[in-house]
Amino acid sequence: MEVQDESGRRLAKARLPEGISGIARLHALVGRFLPEDSDPAEVKIGIETDRGPWVAALVASGYQVYAINPLQSARARQGNGVSGAKSDAGDAHVLADLVRTGSHQMRTVAGDSEQAGAVKVLTRMHQTLIWDRTRQVLRLRSSLREFFPAALEAYEDLDSRDVLELLTKAPDPDSAAALTRAQITAALKRAHRRDREAKTTAIMAALRTEHLTQPPLIAAAYGATVRALAAVITTANEQITALEGPVEACFGQHPDAEIYLSQPGLGPILGARVLAEFGDDPTRYQGARARKNYAGTSPITRASGKKKVVLARYVRNKRLADALHRQAFCSLKRSPGARAYYDALRDRDIGYNAALRQLGNRLVGILHGCLKTHTLYDEAVAWNEPAQQVAA
Q1: Pairing between strand 64-67 and 10-13?
Q2: Are 271 and 257 in contact (CB under 8 A)?
Q3: What does residue 13 show for φ and ψ, rounded to 5 degrees?
Q4: Residue range(s) defining the domain that contains residue 79
Q5: Are 148 and 98 in the same domain?
Q6: Domain boundary among 216, 232, 249
Q7: Of residues 363 and 387, which shows the higher confidence score?
């Protein structure tokens, strides 16, 4: 860390250990340069994260804590020198200099409630498990394509219960071709599939069709990897389902849960994600535009001379952006106003993703208004203008 005064003069620097001893030493260093009756809020601290025990301890101490985006600090480091050198001491100097000179353009770490923090921990792990499962499914698909293409024709959803059971039981072409009708039907029944007889016939036909494959020894090796991946995906499915209960329970206890659930396209899981990423600090967003900018739904403008381009905002909270994109899609079936707004955008030849992004931007503004006034979503109030005028 590095301590600077208001003029930028270095007062002290040190390498702090982890844990309580590190925080205690930081307090001691800062206290050396403050009067006894000074307010801790006069101290500004820059750090490249907005979560963790260190951040919690700094906020609890009353300091002004600024979470600096690593990209922002990296560019500031480049401005201080062109050699490309990097060190912990140099990074500490950059962070101290950033908060000293630019804190008026930054936001302090949000003062979210413990309830919102708990929802954030649960929803982030739930979503991380889903993303990890997707990666494992892609690995499974890649392996099957290498030696067992018939499985890709026979099975639709590689992460479904019945498919994982059949792949575990018969992970290679020879054993899969030997599966009986009773075995396949039983797997479909345990997965609560409909039209089991027709699906069983189609699966058996696909598995017994001749395809290019690998030599027996290599196919057996691939089969072992398929069985391992199927086990990993099965475990991921179990843990994703197990986390849904705690997510819904924790979210349901939050005082703003009812407002989030009243929004079109938001259920308990998706609503919990949006709440977790937005936080519940009432002073965090100065207005609807600030919330939209943080969400990444509002566009950015690049203008130079006579050239002006409006682009999508890609530097954003990806977890929040994913949740809002899903909300916009789901709202098309649950809100006539959202549907009309989207259709008006599409009639102007705006692309699918761009139209959903603009719809999501409008929904963020509606959510901000509901949270500000502590009122539930009202379809008539939210879409009180003709869709054509709103989308224009």
Answers
A1: unpaired
A2: yes
A3: -145, 150
A4: 2-109
A5: no
A6: 249
A7: 363
pLDDT at 391 over 70: no
- C-alpha–C-alpha distance, residues 247 and 115, integer Å: 11
Q: Which of 19, 35, 99 is nearest to 64 (CA)?
A: 99
Residues 237-259 have a mean pLDDT of 97
In whole numbers, what is the pLDDT of the chain averaged over residues? 91
Helix (H, G, I), strand (E, B) or coil at 67: strand
Structure tokens at 232: 């990993």
Location of structure tokens 């707004």:
341
Query: What confidence tens digit (pLDDT) does each residue in 186-195 have?
Result: 999 999 999 9
DSSP bridge partners of 382: none
Distance of CA 290 to the CA centre of its chain: 19
Helix segments in the chain, DSSP class H: 19-31, 53-60, 70-80, 88-102, 114-147, 149-154, 161-169, 173-177, 181-190, 196-207, 216-252, 257-262, 268-278, 288-295, 318-334, 336-347, 352-373, 379-382, 387-391
Domain-terminating residue out of 221, 249, 277: 249
pLDDT at position 385, please?
62
The amino acid at 347: D
pLDDT (tens digit, 9 = 90+) per residue, 137-174? 999 999 999 999 999 999 989 999 999 999 999 999 99
